[in-house]
Every structure is written in structure tokens, then in C-alpha cells.
Amino acid sequence: MDRVLTLDEVATWSGPPLILFVGIDTGGSLVHTVFDRWAAVLGRPWVLRGVNLPPDTPAATYRRLVHTMRDNPAVHGAVVTAHKLRLHRACAADIDVADPLVGLTHEVNALATADGTVTAYAQDPVALSHVLPGLLPADRAGLDVLCLGAGGAATALLLTLHLDVTGGGAARLTPPARVTFTDTRPEALADLRRVADRAGVAASLSYVAVSDLADNDALLAGLATPALVVNATGLGKDAPGSPLTDKAPFGTGMVAWDMNYRGDLGFLRQAAGTGARPVDGWDYFVAGWAAALTAVAAIPLTGDLLTRLADAAAESRPGR
Question: ω before 133 within 30° of 0 (cis)?
Fold first, then answer.
């Protein structure tokens, strides 16, 4: 079975209802081994195929992707990973309906097109809202958060820590005492600051441009406890290594959360044996896909449904 389609093949697809996986190198993703089980849990006769687009994809190609999905009724939607910002930037005018989180993040991680209407979602914060309660103390008021990386995962974390991202009408959450984001790219920090400004959650946030791993070590050393330390850089999966040195001063009262779930996971290796609680990104991987697929299916992501989807994926978990 060919797991990846060209845009021409998407345009002519006439098989079972199709969900696209839009990324850079989608063919080898673990999601292909679990998707059929997820579709069964959701009661949808979907199949999954990848669409590979390089990081320098021109805007016209993103627009062609969206138009092709809209014009083929066999294509029901897409889950978008590496192209969330660029797709929104290129295709905002082609989106008929967007959820409020798209307006805050200027990202798209899911598209629904089954009825010829293009509906866009930014579901990563919703996914995180199901994961964070298992990582954080019940009282966030004294929590110190250090997020290494300022990309899409950091954007989701910022919003989930400060807002009721599920739209359930609950009061705004009590924010942590301090949240610090670091990145080697000042432009990524500037984008993140703009998201915070649009959301009205600028208080308690700081943004630090770092030049080397020792800068991150120094910020880690300055944390109060309890603390959540997040690797949102992709290092350890997309590239080997960690955003910290092997002398990183983890300690008791810290949760070391790597948003990666496979790869060399150097960040978690550094945290092991220090008294910190190491946690990988498997639950976020499952919740992220669950949030995107339920949005496409137009059904709510309840705790019970997420548990069923997690159980369906459990046998594919690396190192289980």
C-alpha cells in the first residue's frame, strides 16, 4: 500500500473517504499503524494517506491542496503537522469557517472539507488540555514553567495554561506563577508574544533568546519548585540531542516533559536519576490526533472517547 499521495492523486481519489496527513515526510509515521483502529473507534470508514510538502512549499501549492480537498467529495479532511503556520498564511482567504483558536494562533492543524465547505481548526491546545492535568499540580498558582522552544507546541502550551481552550464557558484558569519561553530564533519568540497579546494573557510571561545550551541550563537552575520543564524543540526526535547539556540541574519537584515520544530522547535521559519526573510525549501524540480527527468528524473529544482512542493505540507505543 502506498501511504503517500501526490496532489494529482488526491484530486482523482475515488476510494473510501479519505483523510490526508499533511507533513514533510509522512510515509514512515507510526500513525499509519494505528489509524484504522482510530477510525473504527470513531465509527468512520476513513483511510489515511500522507501528502509530503517541503518546508519551502510556495503559497500556491498550499492553496492548490485546499482547493483540491474542497473539490473532491471523497476527501473528508486533513490533519496538518509541520505546515500549520504556512498553510494559514497562504490559505486564510480560502477558509470558510475557522474556530476561535485559529484566530488566536494563526495556525491550522485540521481541515474538514467533506461538504465542500472548508472549515479550519487549531486543536493542539484542546489536545493539551487533556494531557496537562496529569502533569501539573492541582494548584497552578505556585508553578514555574520553562518551555524550551517557541514553535507551535509552545503556542499550544501558552494558551492551555491560561485559557479555557475547550470553549466550555468555564472561567479563565489560574495561571502559573511564571512561564518562560526560550528559543534560538528571535522571530519565533516574537510570533509567540503576538499570540499572547491576541489572547490577552501577557502577564507572567517572559521570552528569552538563547545562543547555546548553557543558557538553557542557567534558566533551569533558576526555577522554583514545583516546576514543569518542557522540551518543545524537536531535539531528540527530528534531530539528535537535547536543548540542555548533560550537566542540566534537574531536581526533585520538577516534571521533565519531552513532547517527543520516540528518537534518542536525550532530554529524558538527562532528567533520569535526578529526582525529576520524566514524561515522554506519547499521550500528547494520541491526544493531538484525537483532537484533530474528532474536529473533522464534528464530534466532541470527551475524556471517555480519548481513553478509547488511547487504548486502541497502546499496542503501537514504542518500547511498550
Answer: no
The CA-CA-CA angle for residues 271, 274, 278, to 5°, reads 40
The rounded distance, in Å, linking the Cα atoms of 181 and 160 is 14
| Cβ within 8 Å of residue 142, ≥6 positions away | 177, 224, 226
Rounded-to-integer distance, Cα 55 and Cα 57, Å: 6
Distance in angstroms (rounded) separating the CA atoms of residues 147 and 2? 37
For 126-280, the fitting CATH number among 3.40.50.150, 1.25.40.390, 3.40.50.720, 3.10.450.50 is 3.40.50.720
Task: Give me the residues paired with residue 180 across strands.
Answer: 146, 206
The answer, as to whether pTM is greater than 0.90, is yes
Under 8 Å CB-to-CB from 32, ≥6 apart: which residues?
Answer: 3, 48, 50
Identical fold for domains 7-122+284-316 and 126-280, yes or no, is yes
CATH superfamily of 7-122+284-316: Leucine Dehydrogenase, chain A, domain 1 (3.40.50.10860)
Q: Going edge to edge, which strands form the sheet with 178-183?
A: 205-209, 178-183, 144-148, 227-231, 254-258, 277-279
Q: Could you read off the pLDDT of 185-206 as tens digits, one per residue?
A: 999 999 999 999 999 987 789 9
